[in-house]
Structure formats: structure tokens, C-alpha cells
Specification:
single chain; alpha/beta; Rossmann fold; 6-stranded parallel beta sheet; two-stranded antiparallel sheet; 6 helices; 8 strands; 31% helix; 20% strand; binds flavin mononucleotide; flavoprotein; FMN
């Protein structure tokens, strides 16, 4: 298996925590981890197997040019890049209690951008075990990636990650 590139943002929060957990489980020799704040898209295209990690921080942050949000800066750069033939898996941090109507929306937004790159998105997840009202990341009866709620379901994160890796790793050959 060629090395997986994991790209995440922002830093020092729950996304970073889960990115580290994913990397630890896959093993340092098989994965390289990058913060989207530190790279340009030419780094992303070097990998055949890609994992993206994002959090939802409120609709208003998407249209602002808030410099504190790493994905706000990076996502527009991904428009138009070519990821044909590559596999992409996405995980998204959210809060299913306070934001039940917008649960992990940013993961859905990222999925839409990745869809235009020609990549094959893998690692969709059933809504079984999740409670929410609406989510932009819920498409055709499934989540487009792995939702994680570190605010209210921290104890479920490890099992969710383990189950997800069982799905995506065999596809990342
Ligand atoms: C201002 C703000 C807005 C948020 N908006 C949403 C939201 O719309 N949907 C959601 O699922 N979670 C939302 N959350 C919850 C975060 O996504 C969640 O706490 C996540 O773990 C943060 O990860 P991070 O610290 O790595 O950014 C919001 C949190 C904050 C602070």
C-alpha cells in the first residue's frame, strides 16, 4: 500500500485529536499527516489515498474570510484540482445536540468539492447509532464520511474510528 496522506484542520482541537488517533491506528510508516494550513494542493495530489478531516464551525464562518479557520482558506484552493483515480475518505467533527439541524454540515460541503475533483469518495457511514435532524453530509441515506461528536459522544469515537478504518483501509491499496 502506498502511503496515505491525511489532511486536517483546524489545529489544537478535536479534529487534530481524531487525526492523531487515525494516524496512530494506521501506523506511522503508512501515513503522513498534514495540517491544511501548512500546505498547498500540490501536496494533496501526490497521494493516491487521501483522508480529510474537518469540523463544522457554523454556517457564518464559511462565507467569511476568517483567517482562523484553516479550511476556509484551503477549500477554495481545492476547486479545480484533479484527483482522478484517487481514493478520498472524509471524517467530520460536529455536535449532534446543539447543532442537530446542521450536524457535521462541513463534511457535506467538503464532499461536494471533492466530488468535482474526479476522486472516488469511500467510507460512507450508516446513520445507525447517530441522532440528528438535518445534515448536509447525509446524502442518499448515508453519511458521506465518518461523523464524530467529541462534545457529547467522546466515548464512541474510538469504536467509530475502528469500524471506519475496517471499511476504508482495504480499499486503499
Ligand atoms: C461557533 C461554533 C459553531 C458550531 N457549529 C456547528 C454546526 O453547525 N454543526 C455541528 O455539527 N457542529 C458545530 N459545532 C461543533 C464543533 O464542530 C465541534 O465542537 C467540533 O468538535 C470542533 O472541533 P475543532 O475544535 O477541531 O474545530 C460548532 C462549534 C462552534 C464553537
Amino acid at each position: 500500500m502506498s502511503k496515505i496522506g491525511l489532511f486536517y484542520g483546524p489545529t489544537e482541537g478535536n479534529v487534530e485529536k481524531v487525526a492523531k488517533l487515525v494516524a496512530e491506528k494506521i501506523g506511522a510508516d503508512l501515513i503522513e499527516v498534514h495540517n491544511v494550513r501548512d500546505i498547498e494542493t500540490d501536496v494533496v495530489v501526490q497521494y493516491s489515498n487521501i483522508i480529510l478531516g474537518i469540523s463544522t464551525l457554523g454556517k457564518h464562518t464559511w462565507s467569511s474570510d476568517n483567517e482562523g479557520n484553516d479550511w476556509d482558506q484551503f477549500l477554495p484552493k481545492m476547486n479545480g484540482i484533479d484527483l482522478k483515480g484517487k481514493k478520498v475518505a472524509i471524517f467530520g467533527l460536529g455536535d449532534h445536540i446543539a447543532y442537530a439541524d446542521f450536524f457535521v454540515d462541513a463534511m457535506g460541503e467538503l464532499f461536494e468539492v471533492v466530488g468535482k475533483t474526479g476522486a472516488t469518495v469511500i467510507g460512507s457511514v450508516s446513520d445507525e447509532g447517530y441522532e440528528f435532524n438535518e445534515s448536509r453530509a447525509f446524502v442518499d441515506g448515508k453519511f458521506v464520511g465518518l461523523p464524530i461528536d467529541e462534545d457529547f459522544e467522546e466515548d464512541m469515537t474510538e469504536e467509530r474510528v475502528d469500524n471506519w478504518l475496517k471499511i476504508i483501509l482495504p480499499e486503499m491499496k
